[in-house]
């Protein structure tokens, strides 16, 4: 059985990229609820397009071929 989780982050691009890891959720819908909750808060409301939800399989290497 494959377990999938959803990683939510918010990154504001600029001179100093600012990335905030906001949570790990059991469903995409729960991650979207978190975005809705945060969307009117300072630091988030002016950059709503900077939320990102990534899907990950638990216990799976994500960069198995390396990078560079």
What would you say this structure looks like, in words?
The protein has one helix at residues 28-38, and strands at 4-12, 18-25, 51-57. The chain has 68 residues and is of the alpha+beta class. Strands 2-1-3 form a three-stranded antiparallel β-sheet, with helices on one face. A hairpin with a 5-residue loop joins strand 1 (4-12) and strand 2 (18-25). The chain is flat. The N and C termini lie far apart (32 Å).
Q: Using DSSP, what is the number of strands?
A: 3
The best one-word shape is flat
Q: Which value, in Å, is the CA radius of gyration?
A: 14 Å
Beta-strand content bin:
35-45%
Instruction: Please identify the structural class as seen in this structure.
Output: alpha+beta
Name some characteristics of this structure:
68 residues; alpha+beta; 3-stranded antiparallel sheet; 1 helix; 3 strands; flat
Entry summary:
By secondary structure, the chain is α+β, with helices and mostly antiparallel strands. The chain has one helix at residues 28-38; strands spanning 4-12, 18-25, 51-57.
Q: Secondary-structure map with pairings?
A:
Blueprint: E1 4-12, E2 18-25, H1 28-38, E3 51-57
Antiparallel strand pairs: 1-2, 1-3
């Amino acid at each position: 059985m494959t377990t999938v989780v959803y990683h939510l982050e918010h990154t504001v691009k600029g001179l100093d990229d600012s990335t905030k890891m906001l949570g790990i959720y059991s469903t995409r819908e729960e991650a979207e609820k978190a975005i809705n909750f945060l969307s009117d808060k300072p630091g988030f409301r002016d950059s709503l397009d900077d939320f990102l939800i990534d899907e990950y399989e638990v216990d799976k290497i994500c960069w198995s071929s390396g990078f560079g």
